[in-house]
């Protein structure tokens, strides 16, 4: 029988009583490898009740003990790195190396969460008025929840629950229904690391289960990562219900290439950043903006793209894997057709891509358009496939204006040998994460993941200091003690025995 993915409620892996199940398939073969349950209302209510109960003791657990759980968890994740990557590759189709990277980026966040004692340190000022001091503490919120996308089933759950729990909260995770096996393994290891019963719960499902999270009064904060329409919906409904919400959404990331850039670096970085992970990364480069004479490199980049090919998770020579589903493949192919109809020049066509021994995979090969204009649908939409759109401008100013006019603001990069051009770009561009001669500038967890504009709805970002603030309250205490109350140790009113 096909494996049924368990729920994780009150410290137990349990089989759901639901009648609704969603198939989990291997995207290279279409083999159904598991079934995701859509948790029932009773099961979700039980998860909330257990998370509320666990919070009462977990918030009183000394911070150094909470940090030690994260240290043990980090060690276990490292020990099981390859095994988790294999599970991840089987349900996402990612190549093994890419799957390992997904796990590793999550491990780094757990390492960050292990620093929780210093991250929680508050502020103090003595003598804010005569004899009065003010100091602040960072306290947990209560029950928090996370809703995650399919494209990083290890990294993104690990952006959320370790830090939330290290802050003293309890957490309910709703992973993507398309690849729930990786998060299940992460949770087994979390339990093994000594996390007490109830601090982490996992409910599975889709829209109905998300709506439960959005409406459940006991849930104080929601972290979401996924597409733009769903992110907007979650931000609106969650905040209407008076919850704290951070919603990380889709993107259209531009790479600006100056004519003085290191050409071979540009070519190899652009190829990896546009079609790596089949373009299914929120920080993938999907638009290349060639400034001035740099546009002469377009044919060479197209030739390089033709040389890379997709393949199955166990194919060491493959540059990337299949798309997550037949629907995702169809959507990307529709965009390629539309791009041709809109008048863009199709330099590399990834349709009709075949991979030996895997006739049923959701394959789309590297694809590149040139002469793309900003009114085209292939420019306006996040395609989320291995498709690079090339456009050009005469000047750096025009390139900056083009990037700033785009509604998204997740990431951007610039390739140049000029410090002055780079300084101008990083200062003027209205995008939250900028790479200078770095194609995919994802900050390490001691910074925060800071998408802007249509790529992020909320105020406080993921991980780093902002992540800690998102999952906590600040309590500010102003205190005065009266000198006249000090016991007179020498006199008849002596109340303290100092011996
Ligand atoms: P998605 O929005 O389809 O799904 C994300 C989550 O929302 C899943 O858990 C899903 O079950 C749930 N969901 C889906 N439809 C829903 C609905 N109608 N109502 C309520 N919940 C719903 O996203 P996806 O396809 O899994 O992931 C890809 C998207 O995520 C891309 O747009 C990508 O750019 C984005 N993403 C963004 C970041 C970032 O940091 N900005 C990181 C990774 C992925």
TrEMBL record:
A Pfam family this chain is assigned to: Aldedh
Aldehyde dehydrogenase domain location: 13-477
Listed EC numbers: 1.2.1.27
GO terms classed as biological process: L-valine catabolic process; thymine catabolic process
Domain of life: Bacteria
Keyword Cell membrane assigned: no
Gene3D superfamilies, A to Z: Aldehyde Dehydrogenase, Chain A, domain 1, Aldehyde Dehydrogenase, Chain A, domain 2
Name of this chain's protein: methylmalonate-semialdehyde dehydrogenase (CoA acylating)
Species: Pseudidiomarina terrestris
